[in-house]
Amino acid sequence: MCRRAALRPLVAVATPDEVFQGCDPGLLSAGERARSASMRDPADRAAYEAAHLLVRRCAAALTGRPAAELMVRQWCATCGVTGHGRPSLTEVPGVHVSWAHTRGAVVATAAWHPVGVDVERMPAAPAGVAAPGPALGLSPAEQRRVAAAVDPALLGLRYWVRKECLVKVGVATLAGLHEVDLSRLARPRRRHGWSVSRYGDHRLVDWCDPDRRVLIAVAGAGPPVVCSVADLARMGVDSRPGASNISDGDQCEQP
Asked: DSSP letter string over 48-67?
């Protein structure tokens, strides 16, 4: 595996149903099942479980280890309590993982370097109407760009998902999101609506998924390799234990 391939996070996007078709819910730990059971809404439970299963599949494809051998752990550095906070894999601490979910869609990633992902529903507001939620975390310059945009709601959401990813890789905090200014980043558009930019040492990539009607963002050391659940299954079969199955000739989507 060359250095360029090692920098690329492996990312998968799916609906909960797509995940459940190829993953055994029995892989979830007792703690994860208890957390899921505490959620009132079935859609929220499905999204939570699917995200935790999908991140195992990503890590299995990245490392060549069976998903059944990977235990997801979360620990909060602020309060010292497990069950929330930054995630990791007990068996392979050198692998970085992240996930996010919204109703009807989940995203997960595994990488050899710090990585963060986020997914949000596409804004329901019509063009010309700014979404009120994400604007709360925007810098003054970003707010001006959003106000002048053709589709303010979409641009505001793009800023939001990128910043969520920066929080997950540890270079920003939720309380300080308004201090992170992404308004001057280059935003070249690529195929499938890809938007690629840089923030410090991190590559920021976001794109729209029209089939699932969500916006996905990734922050990592390199551009992501984006796979389906079927891709992960193929990669898992082809992988050798301890060796990543990502190469520069990977057939999954990439910006």
From this structure: HHHHHHHHHHHHHHHH---G
Phi-psi label, residue 80: left if phi above 0, alpha if psi -120 to 50, beta otherwise = left
Amino acid at 247: S
Given a contact cutoff of 8 angstroms between Cβ atoms, the answer to whether 112 and 95 are in contact is yes
* Distance (Å, whole) CA 228 – CA 234: 10
User: What is the H or E stretch that residue 99 is in?
Assistant: strand 96-102
- The residues pairing with 75 across neighbouring beta strands, listed in sequence order, are 82, 86
d(CA 63, CA 66): 9
- 7-to-53, 118, 143 alpha-carbon distances in Å: 23, 19, 32
Q: Using CA atoms, how far apart are residues 117 and 110, in angstroms rounded to an integer?
A: 10
pTM of model > 0.90: no
pLDDT digits (tens, 9 = 90+) for 114-166: 999 999 998 775 555 555 445 678 999 999 999 998 888 888 899 999 999 99
Reduce the secondary structure of 184-251 to three states and give it as a string. CCCCCECHHHCEEEEECCEEEEEEEECCCCEEEEEEECCCCEEECHHHHHHHHHHCCCCCCCCCCCCC
| Residue from 123, 122, 96 nearest 111 by CA | 96
> Read out DSSP for 131-152?
-TTGGGG--HHHHHHHHHSSSH
Question: Which residues make beta-bridge pairs with 125?
Answer: none
Name which of 255, 250, 232, 251 is nearest 66 in CA terms: 232
